[in-house]
Design goal:
Helix content is about 75%, strand content about 0%. It is mainly α. The protein folds into 2 domains: about 1-35, no CATH class; about 50-250, MetI-like fold (Orthogonal Bundle), CATH 1.10.3720. Helix 3 (about 50-80) packs antiparallel against helix 9 (about 160-190) and helix 7 packs antiparallel against helix 10. It is globular and about 75 Å long.
Length: about 260
């Protein structure tokens, strides 16, 4: 258990040390001087952190909107309708994960460059949606499959039409799973680096790109601060997912 805890919390502890270290030289095991000087540099008007964070959040929110707009009807159809070749369709959504991402994003970048989407927010949102759809469709299908059909049948027997039944029974019952799906897609987009690097550079600089540039330049304090800023929403949202994603929904994923 000690080794397991060290493997998880050791890197986080190292990030915290670097984030507040102002002087740390060999052979000292710990920083010799702590402070907030690098935090002020990162979040100063010239640091660019606020702009990168706002851009990252905006791209992630747009990715959630696009992914859920496609995943909700697709997930409902895959879960509640007799869709031909359902298993094949579910596997098709996993194709972006089945191949190495580097050549995929290189070819997407080449395609986007020819149509003017390279280096634009819409281009980055579209490529982020490739990963977002994988999570959104599978979780949405599981959420709709977990809805009790007897409640829908009772609503129909009382005179509710298909749309009213969906709006008042099916959608509210599936909403916790859909919220969990939205959080997964948001966090995946917020932390995405490779797709943003190939499609967005040099005009789009998100927080992961800012962290990468700082690390490559040897600015470990700035890279650690950026990593901690990205880590906080991940921890907070994962606690929310634990509440939203119930056991019956998890059991339906892949079923």
């Amino acid at each position: 258990m000690g080794l397991f805890a060290f493997a998880i919390f050791g890197p986080i502890a190292n990030l915290v040390l670097w984030a507040f270290a102002e002087r740390w030289f060999w052979p000292h095991a710990l920083p010799s001087q702590y402070g907030f000087a690098f935090w002020q540099r990162v979040f100063s008007p010239r640091g660019g952190a606020w702009e990168s964070m706002g851009l990252s959040i905006g791209i992630a929110l747009l990715t959630v909107v696009i992914s859920l707009a496609l995943a909700i009807p697709a997930g409902y159809a895959l879960a509640r309708r007799a869709v031909p070749l359902r298993a094949v369709l579910m596997l098709l959504f996993l194709l972006p994960q089945a191949f190495p991402t580097l050549p995929i994003y290189m070819n997407i970048a080449r395609l986007f460059y020819s149509v003017g989407l390279n280096g634009t927010v819409p281009g980055v949102v579209l490529v982020h949606s490739l990963h977002g759809l994988v999570l959104a469709v599978w979780i949405a299908a599981a959420a709709f499959a977990a809805v009790d059909r007897q409640q829908e049948e009772a609503a129909r027997n009382l005179g509710a039409g298909p749309l009213r039944t969906f709006a008042t029974i099916t959608l509210p019952a599936a909403l916790p799973g859909l919220l969990a799906s939205a959080i997964f897609v948001f966090l995946d987009s917020l932390d995405e680096f490779t797709a943003t690097y190939f499609v967005g550079v040099p005009d789009i600089t998100t927080m992961p790109l800012m962290m990468f540039n700082a690390a490559m330049g040897g600015n470990y304090q700035i890279a650690s601060i950026t990593a901690l800023v990205l880590l906080l929403p991940s921890i907070g949202f994962m606690l929310l997912i634990e509440r939203f994603l119930k056991a019956d929904v998890i059991a339906k994923i892949g079923a």
